[in-house]
Amino acid sequence: MMSDRKRILRALAYIEENLTERIRVGDIADEACVSMFHFSRMFNRLVGHSPYDYLMRRRLSEAAKALQQTDSKIIEIAYDYCFASPETFSRAFKRMFHCQPQEYRKAGVLDSRLLLHPVNEELIEFMESADLPAPRKIHMDSEPVLFHAGMVHVCHDPKSENWLHDVRQRIAWYASQKHEKIVIMLSLDDTGKDTSLVSVVGSLECETNNSQRFPYGRTWISEGQYAEFAPIRFKDIPVVRDYVLQVWNQRVNQRHRNLTELLLVRLYESQLDKKETTVISYMISWSEMEQ
Amino acid sequence: MKPVLTDKKEILLAGYSFYGDPFNTGASWTEENEIGRLWSRFMAYFMKHRTEIESLMSGKEWYELHLLHEDTAERGEYEVFIGFRVESCDTLPLPFVLKRLPATRYAVYTVKGDEIMSDKAETMHREWLQEHDFETAHPYSFQFYDERFKGMDKIRESVLDVYFPILEKS
Question: What whole-number distance in Å separates Cα of residue A43 and Cα of residue A58?
Fold first, then answer.
């Protein structure tokens, strides 16, 4: 008998192949060879969205890319992705991205973190096996962060092993300099139109560091409400980020269009080269719109 | 597991109803999804008006009905109804809705413990239909809860029957 995970992977592949076709949730359940009741429960559990919500968000995400990457008219993009009219498309688009398609195209910057990417097997495995981390709402003050100029890293694929490796190397460098509270600030590289993520690895500044000069720089944590997911193991950062951005963040009605992500790290010198280095928490700005 | 085939006369049910994707807020067998909430609302009403409702009940069993509507395939939304059997609809309290299940033959699967949580009956029935000369007679199925079901907190010790309406292929 086919496992639930295989059925869902088959359903997800079918969705990807048919984003521009007029498929129905019933067709997707048929592709997975299960009843609507079982499919609905299974899909929500393993993907974190209802099947219809997922289908619509995937269509909107691809439509958003088309707005940025092509010169097609908005009405054509709306019809390509099976929206009944430009008005229906605009309403759905605004619900997901908090702006009209025209504004999105004009802004010229695509924050890939707001898009719903195709859910992959790793995330399904995480959803299937883990006690999903529940966020705690916390307030962060605007604290200064001291960083070495060489510790800023622009990354095109934060899911990659290379990114984790680079971040680990930078953390190790701060640890060797006897910094205790290490923070990684993740933000969108808004200088271009790609999906690069800028990681600034630094330490929460203490008094003795105030006299530091070049090549040190100083930046500030944005003050405000954050959702804190903790504790998280270092190696799980990519999948937890994926879960937070792809599932949790899509469910909450974020006021933010510019998300701030922080990773606060506690590590011990003896653990530097070991995989059990602990990430205390992953935080993402959290300010919900009024319903 | 082979189903037991049984013929049933028309069944009249009274209870509460929900329409949508019930697992959108929580997919596991917990009271956090819409089916759990529906049961909570229903049981709260039952406990408050127990004497009145028990006088209407024909039997002590509970039914959970999953009913596909004509537009279900489009968005994956369907109706979940929970209730009990009644003889007539003359004196039902206002919050209740009525379901009249037609006389039909059913394939019945008895599931217990983890089988309940894994929707095993649904899978078994789908496979059984593929191998036999039967088809779905009506777009619904129901779970039948009697004294063998010990509650959500004791689901591993619980047993329930799942009914699927069937029809011999012509």
Answer: 15
Long-range contacts of A95-102 (CB under 8 A, 24+ apart): A96/A57, A96/A60, A96/A61, A96/A250, A97/A60, A97/A64, A97/A257, A98/A254, A98/A255, A98/A257, A98/A289, A99/A257, A101/A63, A101/A64, A101/A67, A101/A74, A101/A77, A102/A74
Residue in this structure with the two tokens 């630094």, named with its chain if needed: A202
d(CA A239, CA A232): 10
CA-closest candidate to residue B164, choices B147, B142, B149: B142
Phi, psi of B116 (to 5 degrees): -65, -45
- How close A41 gets to chain B, by Cα (Å)? 5
Largest alpha-carbon pair distance within chain A? 66
Contact B73 A45 (CB under 8 A): no
A1 close to B (CB below 8 A): yes
**Does the predicted interface ipTM exceed a cut of 0.90?**
no
Distance from C-alpha of B77 to C-alpha of A37, rounded to nearest angstrom = 9
Which chain A residue lies closest to B79 (C-alpha atoms)? A37
pLDDT tens digits, A181-193: 888 888 876 655 5
**Which residues sit opposite B164 in a β-bridge?**
B107
**Of B73 and A160, more confident:** B73
d(CA A280, CA A122): 22
Task: Say if CB B56 and CB B14 are below 8 A apart.
Answer: yes
